[in-house]
Design a protein that fits this description.
Helices cover about 50% and strands about 15% of the residues. The protein has about 350 residues and is an alpha/beta fold. The protein has an eight-stranded parallel beta sheet with strand order 1-2-3-4-5-6-7-8. Bound molecules: adenine and zinc ion. GO terms for molecular function: deaminase activity; hydrolase activity, acting on carbon-nitrogen (but not peptide) bonds, in cyclic amidines; metal ion binding.
């Protein structure tokens, strides 16, 4: 087994990680205390939050209904709404941003694109760019302290309307919030069905305005979601994309277009997208020549770290040290860091 210390020491980036999925238990407890929110009292419920069964949704007694017992991706997203609802002031937002950079540095991540979906942060509805500014100030402070450099992928939720999406993009390209470099879309595709057409105009406007594009697809959707991301949304990266493995023509399109997949095997296994590590298609995608990166998605509620997931992937898929060096180099290439930063990261 390749040890985690060795993995931490590889210069790398992480490109598929949600800020919403990186709050430690201590972060959550501190935010709740700051805001006078009473957490679920029974140790058993707190245990649910921290043992990373959060997507089975804790029975929250105050601070706004995560709902009980809803398993899988949708229940998990409701948990994020509850948790992010605890971030209410600019100082609190800056603090979770700083903590993210510190977490990434502890895993040996030198640069990270982080997905932020303001719809989860219910204290900031209508003030989404103020949230971006507050987060950016935390990332600035972290970088000044020598921690991981971070860029933001501003994420739409799949259930938002076309008009909302276009308004978001107009705001982003006119106001150009510091550190926001990309447009993203996430959420549960099983709930909304196909959304490529709905978001086509927003993503076209983003591309024209110089924003990168990364799209969750082929997780809760099949290959058709990945086709839509590529053909309709001008995606440069796919978040997950694992179900592309079912369609050889799509694999050729990804390889030919240099479109990378931000794969997160532990997330897929835990959230029930893949039955086991053993059956997960990461190795098959890699062998088909697709540019695959290895990421955590939501490490805190999934109870993991990047280095732990890389170690398990090495073991489960039979990757050796040279393979992991390749994954590390590819993560930097696949990132939205500017070319000078990329050169300095390798
Ligand atoms: N938001 C946070 N994690 C997500 C995931 N795995 N899929 C879709 N949306 C998400
Ligand atoms: Zn994700």
């Amino acid at each position: 087994r390749i040890d985690e210390h060795t993995i931490r020491s590889l210069p790398k980036a992480e490109v598929h990680v949600h800020l919403e999925g990186t709050f430690s238990l201590l972060d959550i407890l501190t935010l709740a205390k700051d805001n006078g929110v009473r957490l679920p009292g029974p140790a058993a419920t707190l245990f649910d939050i921290t043992t990373h069964d959060a997507f089975t949704a804790p029975a929250v007694t105050s601070g706004g209904g995560a709902g009980a017992g809803a398993a899988g991706l949708s229940g998990f997203l409701r948990f994020l709404d509850w948790q992010c609802g605890l971030v209410r002031t600019p100082a609190q937002a800056a603090r979770v941003a700083y903590a993210f950079a510190a977490r990434q540095s502890a895993s040996g991540v030198r640069y990270s694109d982080v997905i932020v979906n303001p719809t989860h942060w219910n204290a900031w509805h209508g003030r989404e760019l103020a949230l971006m500014d507050a987060l950016a100030s935390g990332f600035d402070e972290a970088e000044q302290d020598g921690l991981c450099a971070v860029s933001i992928a501003y994420s739409l939720l799949r259930s938002q309307s076309a008009a909302d999406a276009e308004a978001v993009v107009t705001d982003l390209i006119t106001r150009r919030p510091h550190r926001v470099v990309a447009l993203s879309v996430d959420g549960d595709e099983k709930v909304t069905g196909r959304t490529g057409e709905k978001f086509r105009a927003a993503f076209a406007r983003a591309a024209q305005g110089g924003l990168h594009r990364t799209v969750h697809a082929g997780e809760s959707s099949g290959p058709e979601g990945v086709w839509d991301a590529v053909e309709l949304l001008q995606a440069e990266r796919i978040d997950h994309g694992v179900r592309a493995v079912e369609d050889p023509a799509l694999l050729d399109r990804l390889v030919g277009g240099g479109i990378s997949l931000g794969v997160c095997p532990r997330s897929n296994v835990t959230l029930g997208i893949s039955p086991s590590w053993h059956e997960h298609p990461l190795r098959r995608l890699h062998e088909a020549g697709v540019l695959v990166t290895l990421n955590t998605d939501d490490p805190a509620p999934l109870g993991t770290t990047l280095e732990a997931d890389w170690a398990v992937a090495a073991e489960q898929f039979g990757f050796d040290h040279a393979d992991l060096v390749g994954f590390a180099a590819r993560s930097i290439d696949a990132s939205f860091a500017d070319p000078d930063t990329k050169a300095s990261l390798h």
